[in-house]
Each structure stands twice: as C-alpha cells, then as structure tokens.
Design goal:
By secondary structure, the protein is of the alpha/beta class. It folds into two domains: 170 residues, Quinone Oxidoreductase, Chain A, domain 1 (Alpha-Beta Complex); 125 residues, NAD(P)-binding Rossmann-like Domain (Rossmann fold), CATH 3.40.50.720. 24% of the residues lie in helices and 29% in strands. It is built from nine helices and 17 strands. The strands form three sheets. Strands 4, 6, 7, 8, 9, 16 and 17 form a seven-stranded mixed sheet that branches.
C-alpha cells in the first residue's frame, strides 16, 4: 500500500478541504484530482482546492469532460523531462464552457463551448490560454471533443512533419490507438495510400477506417507485405521501429512519437528520422473540430468514467489496453 498523503483523500472518497483559498461560497472552491508525490495511481488524490483565476490571455473554463492520455500518468510517475512543483492537478485535454474571460480575450466569451488544452483538466474548473483552445461546434458532444486535443493534434502534426501528402505511401504502426486511428483517417483524407499494423482483434476496425492493407502483428511480418514506402509513422517503438527502416525507400522518413532508437542505421540506409513532439496549436484544434463535427473524423471511445474515478481511468489507460479513448465525465 502506498503511503497516504496527510489530509488528502483518495479519488472516489470524500475530498479534503483546501487551505489558503480566496473568495466566498462554493464558487471559490473546486474539486481536483491532484498529484502530491510521484508514483503509481495511488498518488492521485481528490482534493478541495481554490478555484483559479484567469490572467492576461487566459480564460477560466468549466470542465465537462477530460481526456486521459499516456502523458498524464507519465507525469504522475515523474517520467517526463519537465520539472513540476507539487502538488499539481492532472490532465491537459478538456471540453467545456467558458466561465470567465478577461479584456484581452475578446474572441472568447463566457458561456461559449470550447475545447483544447488547459492546465490541470482533472478538475471542475481549469485555466486555458486562448491560443490553445478552439470553439466547439454545437453538434459535437463534449466527450467526443475531449478525446481529440492531444491525439488529434499529434496525428495531424506528425503526418504534416513527415511530409505525407496525396499519393504518399505510408505505414502506421499502432493504428488502432487514439493517435493511430486518427492518423489513418487524416492520411486517407489527404489522399495517401495507408497501410497499418495492429493486433488481431482490431484488424477489422482499422480496415474500416480506410487502411489497406491492415497487417496483424500476431500473424504477419509487415516487411513481407509493404516495401519502398515514403513514410513510416511509428507510435509503438521497439522491434517494430527497428524493422521499419527496411521498408522505406531511400529518402523516406521514419517519424516516431517514442524516440529514435537507431539513428545510425537510418543514416546508413539513407532514411530520414524524426523524433516528434506535439505542439499546442489553435488552428489544428479548429480543423479537428470541423472534421469531427462533419462526420469526417471518427473518435473511438473505450470508456467514460465519473470524475472521482481518476485513479481507475489512469490505470485503464496505462495497463488495461482499452479499445479506444478513456475519458472522465466532470460536469
């Protein structure tokens, strides 16, 4: 059993009272799932904490749904390079409504539906920068939108940086996941020829997104199926990445979200490598929302859990191999 943070409540249990908050009444406080020390999901606690106030170029949002991403539990485990001052509220993806705006945020007004990135989204309220959010079409549900910011931005940007255009021949590893499934759809929409790898249970699903061929890693080796590709989008790493160099044409690119393990091999084969890092761009959020609202982009949601079950949600994302996105229903 992990040691309990003094005074903190486990997610799913009564929250502790915050100290040092300002304001009066219920609006001055909020519930938030916070990390008090790095470790496993038992280090995530449901707190009562002061509601934040927006500064210049920021808005206060009421969170309706929060997306659970691998980066969330990697931060909780202390496995990211960025330093954090604890305690911190978990989460970065959200969909909700604007509660407060400042004079510098004329494009966004209280009551408007928005989605995107914010600081600590496993909470009833969060602060978002106006250049990291976008308006949410009325036809797009909050839970669908909350599944898009990190996975959708990653998929859109990695394809762009890998130079995937109409006619490109591309292989996507991990095509059934949150990023991979969106990357398949976006690449097909751009007119690329998309091959994909996945595990047996997801072959039909990935094929339905437009990939052809879909290679089952449990029964086939992808290098016996595809050759002379323009790009490989690697969302898995390990052996799959190592074997990917041989299916690229000279001058092709291997773009990976999990780092490049053997850059020397790529250089010998005349292959370009790209260690990809997602950036928060409002323009990409606008386009993703348009595509999803118009039915051109399908989001696969595995499970929606109530906000107090943040520990369970992170465990499911990290260890449960979910068939799609895990979300928290907050508001």
């Amino acid at each position: 059993m992990v040691a309990r943070v003094p005074g903190a409540a486990e997610c799913g249990q009564p929250a502790r009272a915050a100290t040092g908050g300002s304001g009066e009444g219920i609006a001055a406080k909020m519930k938030a799932a916070r990390i008090h020390e790095f470790g496993d999901s038992q280090h995530l606690y449901l707190d009562d904490t002061p509601r934040p106030s927006p500064g210049s170029g920021e808005v206060l949002v009421e969170v309706r749904s929060a997306g659970v991403n691998p980066v969330d539990w990697k931060i909780r485990e202390g496995k990211v390079s960025r330093s954090f001052s604890l305690p911190i509220t978990a989460g970065q993806d959200f969909a909700g409504t604007i509660l407060e705006a400042t004079s510098e945020t004329a494009a966004f007004k209280p009551g408007e539906r928005v989605y995107g990135f914010a600081l600590g989204t496993y909470a009833e309220f969060a602060i978002a920068k106006v250049d990291e959010i976008a308006h949410l079409p009325e036809s797009l549900p909050f839970e669908t939108a909350a599944a898009l910011p990190t996975p959708g931005s990653t998929a859109m940007q990695i394809l762009r940086e890998a130079g995937v255009v109409e006619g490109s021949r591309v292989l996507i590893h991990g095509a059934a996941g949150g990023v991979g499934s969106l990357a398949v759809q976006l690449a097909r929409r751009q007119g690329a020829q998309v091959a994909a790898t996945t595990l047996g249970r997801d072959v039909a699903y990935v094929g339905g997104l437009g990939a052809d061929p879909v290679i089952d890693n449990q029964s086939q080796r992808f290098e016996s199926v595809v050759h002379a590709l323009d790009a490989v989008i690697d969302l898995v790493g390990g052996e799959l990445q190592e074997r990917s160099y041989q299916v690229l044409r000279r001058g092709g690119v291997l773009a990976s979200t999990v780092g490049i393990a053997d850059a020397a091999a790529a250089e010998r084969l005349g292959v370009r490598t790209l260690a990809f890092f997602m950036r928060r761009k409002a323009a990409d959020l606008v386009r993703l929302a348009q595509l999803a609202a118009g039915g051109a982009l399908r989001v696969r949601v595995a499970q929606v859990l109530p906000f107090p079950e943040a520990r369970r949600a992170q465990d499911l994302s990290q260890h449960g191999h979910p068939d799609g996105k895990v979300l928290l229903r907050v508001g």
